[in-house]
Design brief:
Shape: elongated
Number of domains: 3
Largest sheet: 5 strands, mixed
Distance between the termini: 66 Å
Structural class: alpha/beta
Order of helices and strands: HHHHHHHHEEEHEHHE
Length: 296
């Protein structure tokens, strides 16, 4: 609260306004008005020396800047390591609790690091170059792309916690249970495709997928989809740089069918560029651990 506001409170009260009237007039709480008037009555001023009470910080401004630099140089240090290095700059050592409090005051908090695919500098350059090459594409050009990918789903949740709201009597209610099976329940692998003109085929994959399996997908599913959805056109087919996608036999297939479908060049380590991943949003895919019969 500013000195001007405190003065307004004192002025209003000395003019005969009640605590409630003063609070309503200035948009303040009655307790605030009373506290300011109490300080004025006892000490003859609108501020109280009590506001300056409290333990003095053990770190000076210069020390706080040093602490920020310690964290900025190495974000993955533990609190004890940060404290140890900080104390090497101080005459009077401080505790880890003090360091933690100062970090929080600087809006620096310990958090679980987000996992992200490691991208090498070379591949980062290729990703940027791919974006530059395609940044001027028109909507019509993107509408000619068929996006594809393989995805794996766990049939039963085996890790983590699922919280439910229930009464004590509902402890064994099927809707309040988390189905489990022996050996984790396994997973299912699927291949699918999507384009601006609609969803492509969805193929369930069994066992380890090799290049000959991928050839079957191209011949039995991709080619018919192209002929049906893009008749008389030559769309672009997108897949990533997985070994089964870059095998020589696969490249030969695209060369043989060059008149029907073209192959979109794809930068390495770029799953985030593929819009197909969004189709597996929880909005479209049921929770397998809540709907175990989905396997059938």
């Amino acid at each position: 609260m500013s000195e001007f506001q405190r003065g307004m409170i004192v002025g209003a009260r000395l003019s005969g306004a009640s605590v409630t009237e003063t609070a309503n007039l200035l948009g303040l709480a009655r307790s605030t008005v009373s506290a300011v008037m109490t300080a004025y009555t006892k000490e003859g001023k609108t501020t109280s020396s009590k506001h300056n009470s409290g333990r003095k910080s053990k770190l000076a401004d210069r020390d706080r800047r040093v602490l920020k630099r310690i964290v900025a140089r190495k974000h993955k240090q533990s609190l004890s390591e940060i404290t140890s290095e900080m104390n090497s700059h101080l005459l009077d050592p401080v505790s880890s609790k003090t360091v933690k409090r100062e970090l929080h005051a600087a809006n620096i908090y310990g958090r679980v690091a987000i996992r992200k695919l490691l991208v090498t500098p070379t591949n980062a350059f290729k990703r940027r170059q791919w974006c530059r090459d395609h940044k001027c594409w028109s909507p019509q050009q993107w509408q000619q792309v068929i996006w594809s990918d393989e995805s794996s789903f766990t049939l039963f949740q085996t890790t983590g916690r699922v919280y439910v709201w229930r009464t004590p009597k509902e402890v064994f209610n099927p809707e309040c249970l988390l189905p489990t099976v022996k050996h984790g329940g396994g997973s299912i692998m699927v291949w699918g495709a999507i384009s601006w003109r609609g969803l492509g085929p969805l193929v369930i994959l069994h066992g380890r997928i090799k290049s000959n399996h991928y050839l079957s997908i191209l011949g039995d599913h991709v080619h018919p989809f192209v002929q049906t959805v893009f008749p008389g056109e030559r769309p672009l087919f997108q897949d990533d740089n997985a070994p089964i996608h870059t095998a020589r036999c696969v490249q030969e297939w695209f060369e043989e069918h060059d008149d029907a479908v073209d192959h979109l060049a794809w930068p390495p380590q770029s799953p985030d560029f593929n819009i197909y991943g969004n189709i597996w949003s929880p909005k479209f895919v049921p929770d397998f651990h809540l709907h175990p019969d989905f396997r059938n």
